[in-house]
Amino acid sequence: MRLTKEFRDQFIQHEMRTHGRKNGFVTTGQEARLMEWLPLVGLTKEKTLADANLPDGAPVVMEIGFGNGDFLVHLAETHPEWLLVGVEIYLPGVAKAVSRLDDAGVIERCRITQLPAQFVLTNQVAEAQLDGVFINHPDPWPKARHHKRRIIQKDFAELLVSRLKPGGFIKLASDKADLADWMRDILDVTPGLTNVAGVGGYIERDSDRPETKFEQRGNRAGRISQFLHFVKD
Ligand SMILES: C[S@@+](CC[C@H](N)C(=O)[O-])C[C@H]1O[C@@H](n2cnc3c(N)ncnc32)[C@H](O)[C@@H]1O
Question: In the chain, N or C terminus with fewer CB closer than 10 Å?
Answer without folding.
Answer: C
